[in-house]
Amino acid sequence: MAPLLVLLLLLSGLLVSGLLLRQHFGRATLHRVIVEADTPAGKAFDLLLLIAISASVLAVILESDSRVALSHPHLFEGLEWGFTLLFGLEYVLRLLCTSQPLRYATSFFGVVDLIAILPSFLGLMLAGTKYFLVVRILRLLRVFRILKLGEYLQESELLWRAIVASRRKIIVFLMTMVLLVVIIGALMYLIEGESGGFVSIPVGIYWAVVTVTTVGYGDVAPVTPLGRFVASIVMLLGYSIIAVPTGILTVGIQQARRRQEQVRRCPSCGKGGHQGDARFCRQCGNGL
Questions:
Q1: 266 within some domain
Q2: Is the pTM of this model over 0.85?
């Protein structure tokens, strides 16, 4: 009951603090500082937020080392609660100063902002929340919004279209690879047996995957002349196989880029979305 009461008090305190700040500074001022990143105040706020995010992630990384965590247990706990309350207040202020709070809360960055503060609050209610340590690393995703890296993520749409267009070729390639490693794994099991560590066909398949992908851990290795010969062939085969998905995606990206270039933009009004054979703008009617 006590942890629940503490949680309610913390959430109530964040909400009351947010309401008081909005009443003191005004909704328009908070929106200009927190949401609008192009203003001087907004840039300063984003800089401070970037420093806080970097410091919180650094604290999480250091806390993952048991020696450091045990030598300064109260320091990391205090830092985490400080960052949690700071990000929690920022989250409340974003909800209070935006005209569409539900839209922000359900957006990608809204969910990321919520995840940034959940681990500490859940720690009051649940045991073993040390495993939420890695969740705090997701605070780094907030850097995308601060540095406006989200605009560059639109370029990934081109890659996604190339993958979708080449999905059948990719599926055929993956199925071929599965069959290949199963056959190679079974073959190495028959050739080597337990002498080289190939105690079963699954171990042989594991070795085939590691060898074909050119990883080569070395924990399982052939010892017979025939096994080494087959391993050499598989290694050379692995280098050639790497080029196959690369070529498939390269061709798909080039085709997607050519289709994208066919979509023309009106020089008069700037309206886009015109097909390659269009002669007039569908918005202003001027020639393309």
A1: no
A2: no
